[in-house]
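To assess whether the prediction recovers the assembly geometry, we first specified each molecular entity separately, as shown.
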Amino acid sequence: QITLKESGPTLVKPTQTLTLTCTFSGFSLSTSAVGVGWIRQPPGKALEWLALIYWDDDKYYSPSLKSSLTITKDTSKNQVVLTMTPVDPADTATYYCAHTVYGDRSFDYWGQGTLVTVSS
Amino acid sequence: DIQMTQSPSTLSASVGDRVTITCRASQSISRWLAWYQQKAGKAPKLLIYQSSNLESGVPSRFSGSGSGTEFTLTINRLQPDDFATYYCQQYHSFYWTFGQGTKVEIK
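The predicted structure of the complete assembly is given in tokenized form:
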């Protein structure tokens, strides 16, 4: 049974760094073809893909946010970490992590999401 | 960047109706398209992948079709549980974008 859960701060000040952790179970990021992505959703708005990391450490970023994002994995802890810097009030959103596989790149399992507010 | 445009933005329907949502890509994405259902306060749920493949456990009243730049999600015999927002998502190459969503409301 695959589960994912996001964790991190609920409130971040503008210009600071946001660090989010996705802790998962039921699969391993050392297994061939497995990936974990991050997607966010501002209140009342659409979903936006941010970044994705595969088992082989290949990383992909949204072109519009590439300069501000870093995605890493800790296979031993079953975690994927996303950092975003600097943050802006427009980054206020619910952040989701999700599981994918290389052959079909849809997101088949999602975490419950974590709401992050960027405000001074 | 590949842009995804869904229509309509909002759809009013009754239980038992057949509804169709359209998603258009700004360039060809072959069949690399997924559909998700999202209810208020919940994470999206995968319904359809690779344009027409039904995800395990998803009722057969959901179906998807299309290739290239035009895709549709059809819900036959709409059920009370189906009132939600639906998103298409392309994953051509290693770049993912979502449509703006279609809210299916009770008429």
